User: Fold this.
Amino acid sequence: MSNAIETERLRKTFGEKPALDELNLSIRSGSVYGLLGPNGAGKTTAIRVLSTLLEPSGGKATVLGLDVVRDAKAVRQKISLTGQYASVDEDLTGQENLVLISRLLGMSWGEARNRATELLSAFGLSEATGKQVRTFSGGMRRRIDIAASLVTRPELLFLDEPTTGLDPRSRNQVWDLVRQIAADGTTVLLTTQYLEEADRLAERMAVIDNGRVIAEGTSHELKSSLGGNALRFQLADPTRREEARALVSRIVGDAVLPNTDPTAISVKVSGASVAAEVLSALSAARIELTDFALGSPSLDDVFFTLTGRPPVAPAAEKELAS
Amino acid sequence: MSMDDLSTRGEALKLPPRRAPAGALSTVITLAWRAMLKIKHVPFQLFDVTVTPIMFTLLFTYMFGGALAGSPEVYIQFLLPGILVQTIIFITVYTGVGVNSDIQKGLFDRFRSLPMWQPSPVLGALAGDLFRYSVASLLIIGLGLILGFRPAAGALGVLLAFGLVLVFAFAVSWIWIIFGMLVKTPESVMTTSFLFLMPLTFASNIFVEPKTMPGWLQVFVQVNPVSHLTNASRGLMHGTDVAGDIVWTLAASAVIVGISAPIAMRMYRKER
Assistant:
């Protein structure tokens, strides 16, 4: 069997509201796959349906060749889920949490204790063995949570926004872990709001919005789907943005890419000469630039172009920066 | 610790193959163990279970004893089996509170994604609650004995009464499990449930014989399962014939479990 996950017109509605609206996914075994989308796009619902926590309202989903509704129990025997919030018992210590999960997965008490000790050490949590999880830092919680999913080897690991709210260093640690898990042969499906994360970890990804896949491919494919290169520049005087935008539009037409930064403009250009034309027009109009760059479009450009919305809500951006 | 630290240690990350799924009994025992650990780490959980019953027993015995029965020593013979009933029924709410906080914290999601017998977390929680009920019962009966409670049917009678109270408490817990899955916060489980528990336990024969109550209230007290349980528990402890009340209590428990357990398990498996 070559596909770890296969969904066909998968639907899930809560009351009137569709959370998944004919979602079609095809995810190869042995890869890291990213589900990308803004808050409320349906990422978590997709994971909850695929991990047998929610029954779909329509359509079909198979995980490792097994139907998520009919063969739910067999699916659970092969997967691990790390939800969006640290789903470990805060009142218990790190050690006790891992013993608990090891026992529930069929180990004897002795084996469970040994495995817990091994995992704590592998995840750099040995010092926290006897500490209650409620005293853990955000990064430590995330690690114990992922450790709890790796008591035994799952064929498929679901990671729902594994790095949301983490500081950059903890994020890097989680990224390292994901790479190791994948290198060990486990298929990983992760959701993220951070394009950089998908870009770094996932071989392929699907951008979802309003419960549908709106683009799918490798990060390179997604970027080149926009065609051409992107010219990005930063204005010295943000109040002249509209003027600059209008000027650029006259040269490149509707190829001005949406952008959240009020001092910046991104333009899709077909070649270096168009880029030069844009820059000289700006210079002729005495619109000063503090910075400019020519390169391939970023995933942010892709995202914004596809959804018309910035990929990360301002609040989440702040959280990421802190 | 630094990042390098983790990646070097990370090489030690070995993943053993999946085991055959654990048996149902084994997972329930493991989850009961977890419930005991929570009591160990958060001993405050036992505060309500220990202080409230002691306070109630002392307060009601000495406040009402003289007025209602002539003396506290006489009244406590009547009151103690009822206070036991009231206390244990109050504590059943914690089952719902625990279920609710496990759901809110995402823990039930993890449990539900594991290849185990799905009712295990709920039954494990109930097993942990049995411990709480036992602690509270021991305290009340111990305190009662000190205050002059003398059960005519001896230790066996007290034990049988305790057993019957446990059966009923186990049944009532299922109702709070449903509540725990319905409402948003553990606090709401508490407040909603007390709206039901106050009338159920006070409009009963726990504190006084219903004969001085107005007719409509007597009707309620007569059908209130708490009254039958209290009668049964009194009879068992003092050695009078209460077969009818025992049967009534067991039947009520069976009906409550028969209705609420399937609903609770259905809600547990379905969406949230």
About this structure: The longest strand of chain A covers residues 3-14.
